Amino acid sequence: MTSVSFGLILAGVLLNAAAQLLLKAGTNAVGHFAFDAANIVPVGLRLAFEPHIVTGVFCYLASLVVWLMALSRVEVSIAYPMLSIGYVVNAIAAWYLFGEAVGPMRLAGIGIIVLGVFLVARS
User: pLDDT at position 58, please?
Assistant: First the structure.
């Protein structure tokens, strides 16, 4: 895998992770909600115009474009497992930004993911 290919994969993963974090920040700003007939329009509008959510959607679109570029250069059996890097980034960022718990079991799982990505990248 060339450095350009790896850079595209990493950029796609980071954009996807940023999208997840922005969507979470957006739903935190909106608060708890349920879609039912009485509130689907008001809640839908709040979600559609919440700045974090809008930015998260744009990050998803950008990640899709970058990911397509990566897939044009790298085998999917190599590229797809690299998406797991996003789990690591999101767990650390969610702990830092949102105060989410990252206990020993989660850290062990993250370590296993990192090892798996390393093994796939070396193959």
Answer: 98
